[in-house]
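New to this. Explain these tokens.
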Amino acid sequence: MGKAHRRLWNLGQRSRRGTRRIKRRHWFQKIPWKLLLGIVGVFLLFEILTLPITSILSLETKNPKETALMQQRMEEARAKGKTLKIDHRWVSLSNIPKHVRKAVLIAEDARFYNHAGIDWHEVRTSFKTNWEKGRIVRGGSTITQQLAKNLYLSTSRDPIRKFKELLIAWILETTLSKNRILELYLNIIEWGRGIFGIEAAAQRYFHKSAGQLTKEQAARLAAVIPSPLRYKPTKLTPFLEKKKEVILQRMSTR
């Protein structure tokens, strides 16, 4: 191919690319953005209106007997042709030792009493870590967010579920005291297959009430919270053993 032909060929290529860009621009301009934004707005409004407001408000004086996570676990068991028996025993916050509360707070949400339901510092740190690793390896949910998810939502990670979680967490923080939120959390958190709440976990793993747990046992229970179906507080892996020691060390300095 001569120089003249190459020049003409290059001009043709540039012309075609320019035509494609113009077509894309025209296509982009034709998108009914106002309609799309309207649809999104209606969808979000629907999600807000379907929030369990009455149930959330009742939590100030009423203890939940069953949660969305309990229902999810039972449904998962039924799908496998099995029956899951739920072990859930309520205990008041005043009967949960301070060192037990401290162990859980250190492990899950050290800034619990200082944030309004969302810890933006943790969110940023988790986002940075997950971005660097290329996968989700660190969560940034507060105890309030976890409570919202366990009570009313599911373990899925879709954006809509997260949006509702944030809304419910905000409502929880504006209607309940921090101590009530912590009491609810400690009583409904999953601690094993069919095991929900600190009292059931204490009885099942250590054959004693939550009020009798030692600091060592409290740290063991706190260490397995992120993965209660994978680990047991009575059979710690080297990783969990190290995590337990870190919790105990921090407990001694606070």
User: Anything to note?
Assistant: The first strand starts at residue 87 and ends at 88. The chain has twelve helices and three strands. The first helix runs from residue 3 to 30. The chain has two domains: 3-31, 36-252.
